[in-house]
């Protein structure tokens, strides 16, 4: 009987979710299947954390709407939840800070939470109380490992000047871990290979190949909505109803923030020019 | 004074629907938006017509299940319905026959409705001017199927494309324009072939869905929840089910391998 050391994992996805689409939801399903398949992990929870309005991305509508749509979309999921902490912060927060916050939250409620078994076929497993090889980088002995879930485009955004702080990237990839879903047209392996920093922690970067190519981008969804085209079957029904009722996503909403610089770029450009 | 009215259309999709996916249903939505955008057409209905079991395609689940799943998937659609006629025929039915059947049925239904409507002069408007046109809705890979030897009879392609018309939604890298260009027959009827570009690459093929299901992987958000539940309840799509019809020739290839001159029509 093999001695399984299975680590509990919580997946955290940060992003605009403007609006949430079936593709976002698929990412969670794919990541869970992939991690479970390694035999080393058991994904117990998924968290969607929509970015705050202070991010100032072009076309970003109010967080209250984005939260509500995400809640509607995950209403029938037994493991994916929506968290509003990030969106309630007055200023834009670096992803690393959001990850840290959720990590602390998870370990604070550690002793009270129930084990939610999201594994479809309910295998019996033994949870290793000691350090396992794979979770050595997370200092706490018990409690789930928190991993950042993202598309390959986020991984590649690490290279955009002033968008990320190098120490944040190191922390996310080195201490927590990344689950990266490939989108066609990107080669995450190559990208990791070409960066010394990423390569050092490549064992913490789980690349998940999306064989069923699914490029439902929220940008495309907003475009279709502006033009009065159908987005049925790209976005959950109840989200479509909400968008219609609230009259979200018009040419006007897309122009929001068009003359403003993205918050991280503002912050880091200022910092680098003053140092 | 001439009033240009939009031509009413009904879109018919034939296929295995093994199982039906969000992508299949997207085809209808995309086609409708595109046709409305031309300003000339009004899509008034959509029909999903799953193929009968006698098609003999490998891995084909029983028609009763494929129909049930399609019905579940389309429960919330206000304009697309599932039709069982094709699946109930004793043998595999040529697409052109299915089109003739639906076209006739639509005309008859309209005739019944208009029977009581008369214009000020006491005449009923000519059916041909108001009857919805039936067009075949398909993906770009379907255009390439015309090239497969023995799969289609030339006169059937002529009727499907020439008399009825195609609405073809392009998927991924396939180039429907090229397929039309490379076939003299299709080229001749190019004005009756509507090419709809799907800018969002959404390649949720039923083959991939079945593969994922066989491997116990999630297909949530690719296929409606109600369909997933049905699949699990009936344990469809296993390694065994995928081997069904293995080694068997597709029915059209057998049925249509007749000496020239022999009629295949009733």
Automatic annotation (TrEMBL), chain A:
NCBIfam families: nicotinate (nicotinamide) nucleotide adenylyltransferase. Homohexamer. Interacts with ADPRT/PARP1. One of its GO terms (molecular function) is nicotinate-nucleotide adenylyltransferase activity. The keyword Transferase applies. Belongs to the eukaryotic NMN adenylyltransferase family. The lineage of its organism: Eukaryota, Metazoa, Chordata, Craniata, Vertebrata. Keywords: ATP-binding, Magnesium, NAD, Nucleotide-binding, Nucleotidyltransferase, Nucleus, Phosphoprotein, Pyridine nucleotide biosynthesis, Transferase, Zinc. Its cofactor is Zn(2+); Mg(2+). It is found in: Nucleus. Pathway: Cofactor biosynthesis; NAD(+) biosynthesis; NAD(+) from nicotinamide D-ribonucleotide: step 1/1; Cofactor biosynthesis; NAD(+) biosynthesis; deamido-NAD(+) from nicotinate D-ribonucleotide: step 1/1. Residues 12-223 form the Cytidyltransferase-like domain. Residues 111-136 have a biased composition (Basic and acidic residues). One of its GO terms (cellular component) is nucleus. This is Nicotinamide-nucleotide adenylyltransferase.
Automatic annotation (TrEMBL), chain B:
One of its GO terms (biological process) is NAD+ biosynthetic process. It comes from the Eukaryota. Residues 12-211 form the Cytidyltransferase-like domain. Keywords: ATP-binding, Magnesium, NAD, Nucleotide-binding, Nucleotidyltransferase, Nucleus, Phosphoprotein, Pyridine nucleotide biosynthesis, Transferase, Zinc. It is found in: Nucleus. Signal peptide: none annotated. The keyword DNA-binding does not apply. Its main location: nucleus. Pathway: Cofactor biosynthesis; NAD(+) biosynthesis; deamido-NAD(+) from nicotinate D-ribonucleotide: step 1/1; Cofactor biosynthesis; NAD(+) biosynthesis; NAD(+) from nicotinamide D-ribonucleotide: step 1/1. One of its GO terms (molecular function) is nicotinate-nucleotide adenylyltransferase activity. The keyword Zinc-finger does not apply. It catalyses: nicotinate beta-D-ribonucleotide + ATP + H(+) = deamido-NAD(+) + diphosphate; beta-nicotinamide D-ribonucleotide + ATP + H(+) = diphosphate + NAD(+). GO terms for cellular component: mitochondrion; nucleus. Belongs to the eukaryotic NMN adenylyltransferase family. Homohexamer. Interacts with ADPRT/PARP1. This is Nicotinamide-nucleotide adenylyltransferase. It comes from Oryzias melastigma.
